[in-house]
Amino acid sequence: MRRFVASDADFQTAFRAFLDERRGAPADVDAAVARVIEAVKAEGLAAVLRFSREFDGADLTEQTIRVSAEEIEAGAAECDPTVREAIAFAAARIRAYHERQRPKDERFTDEAGVELGWRWTPLESVGIYVPGGRAAYPSTVLMNAVPARAAGVERIAMVTPPGRLQPAVLAAAKEAGVTEIWRVGGAQAVAALAYGAGPIAPVDKIVGPGNAYVTAAKRRVYGVVGIDSLAGPSEIVVVADAANDPDWIAADLLSQAEHDPAAQSILITDDAAFADAVERAVQTQLQSLATGEDAALSWRDHGAVVITPLPDSPALVDLIAPEHVEFAVDEPERLADRVRHAGAIFLGRLTPEAIGDYVAGSNHVLPTSRAARFSSGLSLYDFLKRTSIVKCDEAAFGRLGPHTVALAEAEGLPAHARSASIRLPSDR
Q: Both 273 and 413 in a single domain?
């Protein structure tokens, strides 16, 4: 963990250097991913099965790579009733939140008499990547599949690394309306969704977080399919004053640090003594945290405390452009309303980021690595397409046609010009 004091002469240089440090992306990832994708593209299922044996130690076949409906039902039934209830509660809130985002189709006639508009249609198919390994993530299933289903996507194909599927993940898949589940992970899963592999039919878009190999694979297949974003390690900024309980703020910082040793947690406060208390609380909580090994590495290597007057915190948040930011202060909107770049904002002392991860209803798939400067979190819009509509009658075309001809000729495109001029009365 590093400490920065805004009044220090070298603060801006030192803090920017800290933000620019590379986190969690091995240099040789892209070359390895390219090999996998080309093999799957050329060989299909045979390559997927081979890589599953090589990377995951899973001896799968065309018959066993798919999770059967019976397995889903049986696994979901094993889920603890309290967890099932929480999954249903979260799904309902996520569904309600995203359904409010539904845009309207529009048709209108402008002053030139041209009928214009747009209509929204759902994607036909979506692939959802659900990580395995470190933990079971039913929330990832809900955050990706529920908005897709709310948008009207008919086919939702879920991929997840081979191994025992946790009952909570299967219960979430069933609740969210996932239509098929495949035991395949890593770059080979992304390639299978993009190009197809045996029984795995290609999809139109791939969403969901993964490790560096999954992210590199999504980057490589973009254009063949759509993707949601290129996810990096988790991030949180907590803006807090000394009126907070240090234990609460320490827990909030560790809530992201426990995801990954490359995660980043930053405290911004105006009180050095409070910062000291939070640091002590972090160390105390790490001793009893089941995920403490990863969290400790994250806090040691990528954690930070910034001492600055709180009115200056929005500018720092914009510089960081974090995935999550909490404003644990009185009247949090006074600061939050001045923030332009953040994936999600949590207001007040009783709104920890963890609420947003699970049951608030907003989406937890958010831009990382400063991408909040130019992108948004996952939403209903990620599963919809907008199609433009244009209709001219004779009078409207008479107004637009000559200008079309003039612009087409200026661009040196005579067929474009002819396509318009041939319809004008003077050219008939």
A: no
Split into its structural domains, the chain has a count of 3
Residues 7 and 140 in one domain: no
Answer yes or no: is 328 within a domain.
Answer: yes
Which residues, in sequence order, are CB contacts of 44 under 8 Å at separation 6+?
195, 196, 197, 198
Q: Which of 202, 185, 186 is nearest to 194 (CA)?
A: 202
* DSSP characters over 254-307: HHHHTT-TT-EEEEEES-HHHHHHHHHHHHHHHTT-TTHHHHHHHHHHH-EEEE
Residues 305-332: tens digit of each pLDDT: 999 999 999 999 999 999 999 999 999 9
> Which residues constitute the domain of residue 334?
2-24+232-360
**pLDDT tens-place string over residues 27-75:** 789 999 999 999 999 999 999 999 999 999 999 999 999 999 999 999 9
Same domain, 265 and 145: no
Question: In what order do the strands lie in the sheet containing 235-240?
Answer: 2-5, 304-307, 264-269, 235-240, 324-328, 344-347
Q: Are 349 and 341 in contact (CB under 8 A)?
A: no
Q: Tell me which residues are annotated as active site.
A: 323-324
pTM of the model: 0.94
The whole-angstrom distance between residue 11's C-alpha and the CA centroid of its chain comes to 31
Give 204's contacts (C-beta < 8 A, 6+ positions apart): 123, 124, 125, 126, 225, 226
Angle between helices 186-195 and 212-221 (to 10 degrees): 20
Angle of helix 29-43 versus helix 212-221 axis, rounded to 10: 60
Q: What does residue 267 show for φ and ψ, rounded to 5 degrees?
A: -100, 130
Tell me which residue has tokens 């930053």: 266
How many CB atoms sit inside 10 A of residue 13's CB? 10
Instruction: Give a yes or no: residue 113 inside a domain.
Output: no
Does residue 152 share a domain with residue 131? yes
Name the domain boundary from 338, 360, 382: 360
The answer to whether residues 273 and 396 belong to one domain is no
Answer yes or no: is 386 within a domain. no
Same domain membership, residue 305 and residue 248: yes
- Cα separation, 239 vs 266, in Å, equals 9
Number of H helices, E strands in the chain: 17, 14
Q: Are 280 and 245 found together in one domain?
A: yes
Based on the fold, state whether residues 43 and 157 are members of the same structural domain.
yes
Q: What is the pLDDT of residues 404-421, one digit of tens each?
A: 999 999 999 999 999 999
